[in-house]
Amino acid sequence: MKKINVVYETKNYNTFKFLDNNRDVNKKHINRLIQSMKEKRLISPILVNESGQIIDGQHRFEAQKKLGLSIPYIIQDGYGEKEAQRLNINSSNWTLTNWLNFYSRKGIKDYITYKEFKKKYKFENEQCSQLLSGGYSRDVFVGGFFKVKDYNKAVKYAEMIWEIKPYFKYITDRMFVRAILDCFGNKEYKHSQFLKKLRWQGNSLIKCRDKKDYLRLIEEIYNRKNMKTNKIRLF
Taking burial as the number of CB atoms within 10 A of a residue's CB, which of 28, 98, 183, 225 is the most buried? Predict the structure, then answer.
């Protein structure tokens, strides 16, 4: 048996500070931890570096501070932002929004563009990634490797999707976005023609369970009352 770390404990909360680029604390998560600690406190030391910066455990720190409890901690010299990032990559606690804020604060242009695009068009993360980069990979995103492929095209397609909003309230639905992007990539598809069909067919576009069902319905709406030679296949 070999001892590799010493656990310290203190009530001097000023000993600790947050890393500038770590994720924002989640108040709901802190409140859940507080309730759990009131029922039974399990000792789980936070990890800090020699300067008192919290590398891992900022939610545990906040919860114990609010309860007036002492803070158990382990010091690991030399740890910093890179080590915090690596710990978080291997943790399931960080959401894509946490990673988006993390990389945006670091000034990475593609993530800043992504964040502004997401705020403007109100798509979820997967849809934003599909529009901006042509695909979606969580590993690529959290690893800091996300790249905007064609911003102008993403804006064009986002605006086209929002043109459907008066006729269909679920335009940000994940499966719908997948389906309509397939349509946009079809050379026979004419968006103005589809909008025209939606205008006179009322509530014909409804929420579907998957991309295939959406494509089938879009094709049906698009082809309704068309001449045989003007009909298109979308799936």
Answer: 183
Q: Which of 185, 125, 122, 175 is nearest to 153 (CA)?
A: 185
Which tokens in the block code for residue 8? Answer: 């310290």
User: pTM score > 0.85 for this model?
Assistant: no
Cβ contacts of 222 within 8 Å, gap of 6 or more: 189, 193, 194, 197, 232, 234
Structure tokens at 146: 């996300």
Report the run of H or E that residue 74 belongs to, with start and end: strand 71-75
What are residue 63's phi and psi, to 5 degrees?
-65, -45
Instruction: Indicate the pLDDT class of residue 89, thresholds 50, 70 and 90.
Output: low
Q: The tokens 């656990």 sit on which residue?
A: 7
Torsion 14-19-20-26 (CA) sign:
negative
Residue with tokens 């563009």: 113
Rg for the chain (alpha carbons), in Å? 25
Report how far residue 234's alpha carbon sits from residue 188's, in angstroms, rounded to the nearest whole number.
9
Total residue length of the chain: 235
